[in-house]
Specification:
four-stranded antiparallel sheet; six-stranded antiparallel sheet; 10 strands
Amino acid sequence: MRRAFTLIELLLVLVLTASLAGSVAVSLAGRAETVAVSLVADDIASAVTFAVSSHRSSGVAHRVVLDRSRVPDRYRVEREAGASSPNGSGWTRVAGLAGRYRSLPPGVVLSVAGAAMELDRSVIYDTSSPVASEIRVLGKSHELTLSMAPLTGLVSTERESDGSDR
């Protein structure tokens, strides 16, 4: 009658467990980037929607700005303040969460097409002069494209990997 496992049986179990753990780790590593890219895209779409609805309700122009002067890049919603703005630029941050800078997670980059540039800042969407703009949210292996419609601010998202709309 056997009372214990042999050394070969124990090694076989360890090898199988290690290979399963390795395959799970590899599959989860790719998921983290996909989730980060999707969260950034959703948050920027929400910021544009907030800017448009704030503009409609208050009559004051709003914009979403990407700040590249610091690492990592960051973005926030601003409203037109005229000459009374604290920094003299004519724009000031909105109150609440939308006005706070949100930093991009590591490995996620924004590529902005059709945006006005101001030194280290890109205007992603401006309600006072809405033009169609496109933002590509890039990870190492995952990419989403946000398209902002002029005037309405309607945001559509397209996955580059499979071409399907969300």
